[in-house]
Amino acid sequence: MSNPDIWKNGEFVAFEDATVHVLTHALHYGTSVFEGVRCYNTAKGSAIFRHAEHMQRLIDSARIYRMDLGYSQEELEQAVIDTIVRSGLKECYIRPLSYRGHGAMGVNPYNNPVETIIAVWKWGAYLGPEALENGVDVHVASWNRMAPNTFPSLAKAGGNYLNAGLVKMDAVLSGFTEGIMLSTSGHVAEGSGENLFLVKDGKLFTAPVSLSILPGITRDSICTLARDMGLSVEEALIPREALYIADEVFFTGTAAEVTPIRSIDHHTIGSGKRGEITERLQSAYFDILHNGNDPYGWLTPVPVG
Ligand code: PPE
User: Fold this and answer.
1) Are residues 42 and 289 in contact, defined by beta-carbon separation less than 8 angstroms?
2) Which of 44, 156, 168, 200 is catalytic?
3) Maximum Cα–Cα distance for the chain, whole Å?
4) CA 112 to ligand 1 centroid distance, Å
5) Tens digit of pLDDT for each residue in 221-279?
6) Alpha-carbon dihedral angle through residues 158, 160, 166, 167, given to the nearest 10 degrees
7) Mind listing the domains of the chain with CATH numbers?
8) Pocket of ligand 1, candidates 151, 212, 214, 217: which has the most ligand atoms within 8 Å of its Cβ, to mutate?
9) CB 3.0–4.6 Å: which of 113, 167, 201, 209 could bond 192 by disulfide?
């Protein structure tokens, strides 16, 4: 099957034709904002997980960077649905991206048109096929998360991922699956493409948004699921060494879903197996995504196929 058509500035173009000029502003200065969303082939039909929240975050990211997308949230939501339907994919990863195109060179982003594309593709388990069950081996990254008031972390911007890419390359070169970033204050922040939760004595802890993390939509979903199970969830300043003595640690993200962490800096976490609370939260999360049980109204049906 050929690659799905890409939605670009309101029209569909063939995958091969969805190109940009080499003087595209975003290539030179990182001036793009994007989203990562998943559509699941649930037992009740294809559905996008937390579609409105993702499109709202795209709009917020654009607002922070003074980019006028030229589309309403409803139009963007519909464009995503149309792109999926056209692809025929019952299940896919969705990548909306808005960027400063080709206009005037120089740092000043004004005078470069804002372009928007939506691409979809099949994307399996982000951190490896066995990661969801067996967990991943990670280390604490030598690169920190950006300092507050440098790069806005509430914007999911292309430029932020230069930092994430350094973290990921270091991890891979050292034989780990992922790196955990500390904040500039030395507290546990998040992974290169995931938020992080720690479980200690039956309670969940995760970094506050003020540590320059991306406010993850999966993070928010897991907080809700955990609280509704009667578990305590606290946003806290987590010291690095608390990771080593945690009972359970796991990543959350659209791509990574809920991935257990098996070891950190060669310290085995808990028993070295997926923890009980991690497993309960994973099951609750997948019950929505796989079985289509949706008590929170988090699924948007997509009439595909
Ligand atoms: N932190 C970062 C830095 C991040 O990139 C993501 C998502 C998250 C946390 C989790 O956010 P959310 O998806 O809303 O729960 N990372 C996206 C991109 C991954 C990629 O390699 O590309 C994703 O998971 O879609």
Assistant:
1) yes
2) 156
3) 57
4) 27
5) 999 999 999 999 999 999 999 999 999 999 999 999 999 999 999 999 999 999 999 99
6) -120
7) 6-121 (3.30.470.10), 131-291 (3.20.10.10)
8) 214
9) 167
